[in-house]
Amino acid sequence: MAKISIASQDRVFVLTGAGISAESGLPTFRASDGLWAGYRIEDVCTPEAWRRSPAGVWAFYSARREAGQKAKPNPAHFALAELEAKLGDRFFLCTQNVDDLHERAGSARLVHMHGELAKSRCERECGRPPVEDHAIYRSLDEVGRCACGGRMRPHIVFFGEVPLEMERIQDEIHQSTLMLVVGTSGSVYPAASFVHWARQRGARAVYVGPEEPLNASAFTHVVEGKAGEALPGLFEVE
């Protein structure tokens, strides 16, 4: 495919999903059998699951931490970091992923709208900020408590909770002239709406992934293929 040009006045908004992490060996969000890494979503990623069994939730996320720490960034992560290096503050990355592969590849201007695996926060939402936490917990007794007394929970947006940094994300979308969506199915909202918001303001939109997303008609370019193969060299920065 011909290179896609990024002009000197363009501002680029990037949205990444589970597909980019899958190329690093991490399981995608929801498998075809409806399970997430062998678990029912309802048992590990809802406020009700946390209230019912914080031990079960921590067991699941500890296992995900362990897998995440072993994974390595792939060429797609590095290609996005290189694009950021060229564009500077005209680049913004929003990821639906909770791993830190973007950061480890060199990305800095980014937000994790669904939280971060390597952080914990107070279950009481007492106002204290999330803290860095890479521990692999083998039992609930090992999990610390906040200064207010609340138990620490994974800094993850559970189903039914509001995604993080939405005001900043909307502001960045409104400023963008080019949206790049990588490895996300177009089925999870509000992220699936981002391309529509950008297109309403006249932005071009490019999708990169192994198969067409559900919202493919919203894009000006759809590039089918693995992100690690398609992203390097896809853009020409003027």
Write up what this structure looks like.
This protein has 238 residues and is of the alpha/beta class. It folds into two domains: 1-26 and 72-114 and 163-238, 3-Layer(aba) Sandwich (Rossmann fold); 27-70 and 117-156, SIR2/SIRT2 'Small Domain' (2-Layer Sandwich), CATH 3.30.1600.10. 30% of the residues lie in helices and 21% in strands. It contains nine helices and eleven strands. The protein has helices at residues 18-22, 41-44, 47-52, 54-70, 75-87, 101-105, 166-175, 194-200, 227-230; strands at 4-6, 12-16, 91-95, 110-112, 115-122, 131-132, 152-156, 178-182, 204-209, 221-224, 235-237. The chain has a six-stranded parallel beta sheet, sandwiched between helices.
SSE layout:
Elements lengths: L3 E3 L5 E5 L1 H5 L18 H4 L2 H6 L1 H17 L4 H13 L3 E5 L5 H5 L4 E3 L2 E8 L8 E2 L19 E5 L9 H10 L2 E5 L11 H7 L3 E6 L11 E4 L2 H4 L4 E3 L1
Parallel strand pairs: 1-11, 2-3, 2-8, 3-4, 8-9, 9-10
Antiparallel strand pairs: 5-6, 5-7
The CATH class designation of the largest domain is: Alpha Beta
Estimate what percentage of residues fall within beta strands.
15-25%
**Strand-and-helix sequence, N→C?**
EEHHHHHEHEEEEHEHEEHE
Looking at the overall shape, the CATH architecture of the largest domain is 3-Layer(aba) Sandwich
**Overall domain count:** 2
Radius of gyration using CA atoms only? 18 Å
Name the CATH homologous superfamily of the largest domain. Answer: TPP-binding domain
Unreliable stretches covering 5 or more consecutive residues: none
Shape annotation? elongated
DSSP strand tally: 11
Q: Within the CATH hierarchy, at the fold level, what is the topology of the largest domain?
A: Rossmann fold
- Structural category is alpha/beta
Task: Give me the number of helical elements.
Answer: 9
